[in-house]
């Protein structure tokens, strides 16, 4: 493994928190622990600059500079320019606003493609456009594996399609979708892509220039940061979309698609996400390669997680009585693992808690996906999810707890 668990975990105060001692955290897909680099920036903003930013006095100027730095740092981590970046209160709120913006951009008779693999945030907001005369086409998963096959997308694409909305990876199936290829095929028919990166981003922020996506969004609180939603939008597309903010802010790109007024301190604190990723690259050293610290951090996190996942998947491969949604090869997926069991997932999660395993059960807002693979959303799945900061010992504890509770 390229990352020393002790050094990585030292960057997260939660691992030194007495009330969490003995608890192994396996609900990271719902929200990660917060990195010290983020907490330091957040506290500093609240202590020194909790004023209206972008004013004329020193504290206000400093506040604006701290926020501008976050735009610059997140952009660098994604390999885009700062004018791509928009902060909003959450990903669900951001996609809701985008849906309204596209309602004014699309024309009756236009078509869009959505999937039934997505979290509802990246499908429901688009499906509502049917009420505006937009044709909604569904790219459906395979009923056994939960996989999105590119042939299914090809069958839906033609000159009427203006938007393809899809996940980078599912929060249930976990498989990493070929976003660059999805985008290439969408662009070939004149469509743009909106990619939900919420379930992928905790495992390494991607190079958006390599992916080619027109819109990419994720949740900072799942990427070791505060509770914010971050959208990267191709600037020329953002300029075409109708203004969703106050009319007098129409000439201010940061205001047009985020009308809710996100928390200034949390925006500033998001610069700490980039700080943390640079720290990860430093810990990895020469164990991985990449042109920038952010690409090296991405490589290190993915390599670490695949090594951590292998013992768990070895165990699951031997359990013919457990249905794993998505591939059993850690190299093909994020370490977000949904298990379909005879009992409701939340009941098993409750028993795992007695072993010090923090996990959960339910449908996780992937209601349509569960229906697509033949699982009653009310029954749900047991979901265990981890990241690069999980220790090998915690994986062993999880396996032992599953073995004890799933006999």
TrEMBL record:
Domain of life according to the entry: Bacteria
Residue span(s) of domain Aminotransferase class V: 25-398
Keyword RNA-binding: no
Listed InterPro entries: Aminotrans_V_dom, PyrdxlP-dep_Trfase, PyrdxlP-dep_Trfase_major, PyrdxlP-dep_Trfase_small
Keyword terms, alphabetized: Pyridoxal phosphate
Matching SUPFAM superfamilies: PLP-dependent transferases (SSF53383)
Cited Gene3D superfamilies: Aspartate Aminotransferase, domain 1, Type I PLP-dependent aspartate aminotransferase-like (Major domain)
Protein's recorded name: NifS
Originating organism: Devosia geojensis
């Amino acid at each position: 493994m390229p990352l020393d668990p002790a050094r990585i975990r030292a960057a997260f105060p939660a691992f030194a928190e007495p009330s969490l001692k003995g608890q192994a955290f396996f609900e990271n897909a719902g929200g990660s622990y917060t990195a010290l680099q983020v907490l330091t920036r957040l506290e500093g903003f609240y202590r020194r600059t909790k004023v209206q930013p972008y004013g004329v006095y020193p504290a206000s100027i400093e506040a604006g500079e701290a926020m501008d730095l976050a735009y610059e740092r997140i952009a660098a981590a994604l390999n885009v320019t700062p004018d791509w970046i928009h902060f909003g209160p959450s990903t669900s709120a951001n996609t809701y606003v985008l849906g309204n913006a596209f309602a004014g951009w699309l024309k009756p008779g236009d078509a869009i493609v959505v999937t039934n693999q997505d979290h509802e945030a990246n499908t429901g907001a688009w499906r509502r456009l049917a009420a505006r005369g937009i044709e909604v086409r569904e790219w459906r998963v395979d009923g056994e594996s939960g996989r999105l096959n590119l042939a299914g997308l090809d069958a839906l694409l033609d000159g009427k399609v203006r938007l393809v909305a899809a996940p980078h990876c599912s929060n249930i199936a976990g498989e990493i979708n070929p976003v660059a290829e999805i985008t290439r095929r969408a662009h070939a028919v004149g469509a743009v892509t909106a990619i939900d990166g919420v379930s992928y981003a905790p495992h390494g922020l991607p190079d958006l220039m390599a992916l080619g996506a027109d819109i990419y969004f994720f949740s900072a609180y799942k990427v070791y940061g505060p509770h914010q939603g971050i959208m990267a939008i191709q600037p020329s597309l953002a300029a075409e979309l109708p203004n969703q903010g106050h009319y007098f802010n129409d000439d201010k790109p940061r205001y047009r698609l985020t009308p809710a007024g996100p928390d200034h301190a949390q925006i500033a604190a998001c610069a700490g996400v980039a700080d943390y990723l640079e720290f990860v690259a430093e810990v990895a050293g020469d164990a991985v390669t990449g042109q920038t610290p952010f690409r090296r951090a991405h490589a290190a996190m993915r390599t670490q997680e695949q090594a951590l996942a292998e013992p768990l998947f070895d165990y699951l491969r031997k359990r013919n009585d457990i249905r794993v949604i998505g591939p059993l090869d850690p190299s093909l997926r994020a370490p977000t693992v949904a298990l379909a069991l005879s009992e409701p997932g939340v009941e098993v999660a409750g028993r795992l808690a007695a072993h010090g395993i923090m996990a959960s059960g339910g449908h996780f807002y992937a209601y349509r996906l569960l229906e697509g693979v033949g699982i009653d959303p009310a029954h749900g799945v047991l979901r265990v999810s981890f990241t690069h900061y999980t220790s090998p010992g915690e994986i062993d504890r999880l396996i032992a707890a599953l073995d004890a509770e799933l006999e």
